Amino acid sequence: IAYRAVQLMHQAGIPREALQLALGAGDIGAALTADPRINGVVFTGSTEVAKAINRTLAARDDNPVLIAETGGQNAMIIDSTALAEQVCADVLTSAFDSAGQRCSALRILCVQEDVADRTITMIKGAMDELRVDNPAKLATDIGPVIDKEAQQNLLAHIENMKKEAKAWHQTKLSADIDPENSTFVPPTLLELEKLDQLTRENFGPVLHVLRYKSGQLDSLIEQINSKGYALTGGIHSRIDGAIEHISQRLEAGNLYVNRNIVGAVVGVQPFGGHSKSGTGPKAGGQNYLQRLTRGGHWQAPATTTAGSADEAALSQILDAVKQSDLAADAKTRLQKIADDARKNTLRHAIERLGGPTGETNENRWHMPTTIALYGGDLEQSLAVLIPIAAAGGRAAVNSGHPLAAWKNRLGGIIHISHGNICGKATHVIALSLLPAEERTALAARDGVIIKIQPADADGNVDILPLYHENSRSTNTTAAGGNASLMAMAEV
């Protein structure tokens, strides 16, 4: 497939010297990423390999681009109002299609206690109807996993979890399969007592089920988020308030409402996550190509609903600026930056996307919780802090930074990070050149890949690349149909 795709792109006019196909094992990728002539790397695979690539690139002074799409502990939350029959079909598709070997596949199913027995029983019954066999046969529903190593890892995980699980259920393999000379893994449902029992992503047809009480919803979401991934998520509910409540709290780059959580369509559901699930931007979104360019600020998206700034944070900063001993012209410049931030923020902004009838698709954005600032003078730092705070973000600085002296004036907007320039931040804005030893230390940290956003030659920083992108796809037929379609005048 890769060879044919490259062949078609060459025929379409892309120069051969600009696009080449290199086939091989991991040593090919390692050699390419270590070559100083490589200015950017686009990677899809495991979090561990993405971090290894990042460590290699971090040793360079020219800040090469890395776009990494990795895995996820993808969760779907089912409340008591969900339609069980629809849940059953969407769960089977999300967890077991492609033998569960999609990065977007469902790994954790959370079912409200009130409807858990009926829903889980229905899923088990549907699993029994699946045919696991050679994919060359038209009647086959589930095929093999990629290789013997993947099979053995998955089977070992299943056997280990069976010892801890409250209950488990498996689809039988076809009688035609020779287990010794194939790589099939039976679709498996494992009911857990608690989410802590699941420690790592398992890339295959294994679904972990957890029951929850309605009063435990927020705690459940916190547990899911604490896994550190943010790729795909699902919600099944027929209550708009519940959908919005979960949507605002569940960390996921792609969120699917009352439908399956796999099969994102380019241009309709731009795909990709953040935190341990990738660096962004989203594939199929307008920022992807911009990330592969140098110079100039990114073009903002054309939003359908305008953003709204965090006015309380802006007022707090501007009051502190007015009461400071900054020069009058500096205060005027910072006021102008605040005015622009109000107009341009993507906080609460929505971009409507296309899609089939019966489905709505939209993009939203949110600023990471904490962004570290490195270097720069006081005015430069405030100039960056203002649009970040307007978008709902907060800043971390070390005790020697110019903003540290403003901690009491800007309580809640900045915090002091002791002994580490980054603290718990996932992004670093480098207003001064970040030394090589700092870059390599950040790249060596456990957890997420720390993204570094340098200032341009004039000391300005584009904050658009800092936003996390969130795509939401909603099946409107699940809650009464497409209101906009029903309201259309007859042609």
Structure, described:
There is one protein chain. This protein has helices at 2-11, 26-34, 47-58, 84-96, 113-128, 148-164, 217-225, 240-249, 287-291, 311-322, 328-344, 378-390, 436-443, 483-486; strands spanning 40-44, 65-69, 75-78, 108-112, 167-170, 188-191, 206-212, 229-230, 232-236, 254-257, 274-275, 351-353, 359-366, 370-374, 394-398, 414-417, 427-430, 451-454, 468-475. By secondary structure, the chain is an alpha/beta fold. Helix 3 (47-58) runs antiparallel to helix 13, helix 4 packs across helix 5 and helix 10 packs antiparallel against helix 12. The radius of gyration is 24 Å and the shape is globular. The model has no long low-confidence stretch (mean pLDDT 93).
* Average predicted local confidence, pLDDT: 93
CATH class division of the largest domain: Alpha Beta
Amount of beta strand: 15-25%
Let me know the largest β-sheet: 10 strands, mixed
In whole angstroms, how far apart are the ends? 44 Å
- Annotation field: number of helices: 14
In the residues, how many domains can be counted?
3
Number of strands: 19
Which structural class fits the helix and strand makeup? Answer: alpha/beta
The CATH H-level homologous superfamily of the largest domain: Aldehyde Dehydrogenase, Chain A, domain 2
For this structure, the CATH topology of the largest domain is Aldehyde Dehydrogenase, Chain A, domain 2
* Low-pLDDT ranges: none
Helix content: 25-40%
Give the spatial strand order of the biggest sheet.
Answer: 5-6-7-4-3-9-10-19-13-12
Shape: globular
